[in-house]
Amino acid sequence: MFNRFIIFLSALLLWLPGVQSAPTDSVTITEVMFNPTSGNNEFIEIYNYGSQAYNLSQWKIKDNLELDTIKNAGFGITLNPGQFAIIFENDYDIATGLYKDMIPVGALILKIDDALIGNGLGNTSDVIYLITNTADTLSVYSYSSSNPVSFSDEKIKLDNDNSVSNWINSFYTNGTPGAPPESVNTPPKSISKPDQDKPKGIA
After folding, report:
1. CATH code where residue 108 lies
2. List of E strands, the chain
3. Residue 1 falls within a domain, yes or no?
4. CA 164 distance to own-chain centroid
5. Residue at 99 is within a domain
6. 93-129: string of b/e by CB count within 10 Å (b at 16+)?
7. Going residue by residue through the chain (203 aa), what tens digit of pLDDT does each one get?
8. Total structural domains within the chain
9. Which of 8, 67, 114, 130 makes the best surface tag, with the fewest CB within 10 Å?
10. Does residue 51 lie in a domain region?
11. How far apart are CA 136 and CA 152, in angstroms?
12. How far from the centroid of its chain's Cα atoms is residue 62's Cα?
């Protein structure tokens, strides 16, 4: 009887939202700010396009040289279905920083465990990996920059792969941290469109 209870309890914990930690492919990198105007304003945005919430404790972000652990920035560490998360450097000031008035209500704000994402995201090229607590690589994005300063790279169709054709230079100064994809696909009339001809992504 006791063994049956343990089996039932284990199955229940696996089913409950918010306790999963290793999805197969439903969390993806969706935006990278690698050349901000100044200071500690680099960020990586991820998105959960699946139907399951995930605990991101001990998940990692890696560039081509260094691995960082994602940590709770005071807003929780569970990424819900349909939710964006923005991952900042550890010394970014959430209350007064550059993006304080840009991040939508409902986006999850996270940090890494040191002051640089990777060894500092390259301004000309780099490779970024999203890795689970079980060492599974969920998403990889490689870029070669032709962006103006302060224009991020953004993914167009969030549930598609990271192929060249599915990434674009942001239309917006300082990017769209935590914003839905509609803002990527329609350039604002008041802002000139950056060069969109550069190659992007990795299959």
Report:
1. 2.60.40.1260
2. 27-33, 43-48, 54-55, 60-62, 67-72, 78-79, 84-88, 108-112, 125-131, 137-144, 153-155, 167-169
3. no
4. 18
5. yes
6. eeeebbbeebbeeebbbbbbeeebbbeebbeeebebb
7. 544 443 444 444 444 444 555 555 799 999 999 999 988 999 999 999 999 999 999 999 999 999 999 999 999 999 999 999 999 999 999 999 999 999 999 999 999 999 999 999 999 899 999 999 999 999 999 998 778 999 999 999 999 999 988 999 999 999 999 997 665 556 655 444 444 444 454 43
8. 1
9. 8
10. yes
11. 26
12. 12
Tokens found for residue 58:
């001990």
Domain membership flag for residue 194? no
By residue range, what is the domain housing residue 75?
A: 18-185
Burial class (CB in 10 A: 0-12, 13-18, 19+), 198: middle
Q: What is the pTM of this model?
A: 0.82
**What does the block give as tokens for 11?**
């199955």
Q: Look at the block and give the residue holding tokens 């399951």.
A: 52
Instruction: Decide: 97 and 148 in contact? Cβ < 8 Å.
Output: no
The span from the CA of 87 to the CA of 162, in Å, is 19
